[in-house]
Amino acid sequence: MDTAPILVLGATGSTGRRVTAHLRALGAPVTAASRHxxxxxxxxxxxxxxPALRGASRMFLMAPDGIxxxxxxxxxxxxxxxxxxxxxxxxxxxxIGDQRxxxxxxxxxxxxxxxxxxxIDWFDQNFDEGPFRDAVLAxxxxxxxxxxxxxxxxxxxxxxxxxxxxTEDGHTGRTYELTGPQALSFAEVCTVIQDVTGRPMRxxxxxxxxxxxQTSFGRSEESVERDLTAYAALRALxxxxxxxxxxxxxxxxxxxxxxYVTEAAAGNDWPRP
Length: 273
Description:
By secondary structure, this protein is α/β, with parallel strands linked by helices. It has helices at about 15-25, 50-55, 70-80, 95, 100-110, 135-140, 155-165, 185-195, 205-215, 220-235, 245-250, 255-265; strands at about 5-10, 30-35, 40, 60, 85-90, 115-120, 140, 175-180, 200-205. The chain is built from 12 helices and 9 strands. The strands form 2 sheets. Strands 3-2-1-4-5-6-8 form a 7-stranded parallel β-sheet, with helices on both faces. A two-stranded parallel sheet has the order 7-9. Helix 8 packs parallel to helix 12. The mean pLDDT is about 95.
């Protein structure tokens, strides 16, 4: 194994800390970088870029939602000796017109480094660490996907897959889509949460319900309509087909959504109803 450290950006976040843990479990040297790590990295502060990148031979690359992957950062990484980049992306970005991630993938592919792209579906931890936590606590979720089934994937499986692609040969120039073992609608997901936790959990899958919920949060009509256009494109793709990518990359089965909920319910993120 290469003795130069692997740089993990966003290492204190939901995904990054799991990638870091799996790399360390494999015995790989890791530099964990974030705004709050000993190795500081801030997308909005270019002074932090070079100190974080220097000495790394491989990099796990992701940017927070809404922040572009700047070509200058990727170019600097290659100039400083980063030879392999694993980028966290998302599925269906062409269909929904996610120009931020389309550009990120293009930047990495043209960087001159060996690259691997991980495209993930909705991740389980959205419900206890991410944007749907408040919906769980409120007992109500509105999302305009109707009964369309998605391939919810657990972030621990994503972390394990990323660690393998960063440390093993044979992944250069590959784009992997990561899903869980089942495709579930959001209505079915809410039923699982209700069954396991005893929390009432209602789902509203129409455009009108989503529009009303987002407007109540103070979002502009223009931004909500953009969302609805993207969700309509996602619905048009139909149900996600579960893939075996996680077990092929990691050598273990992918965790089910019910297993995730059972573990999350045992923690403190969802106070008892």
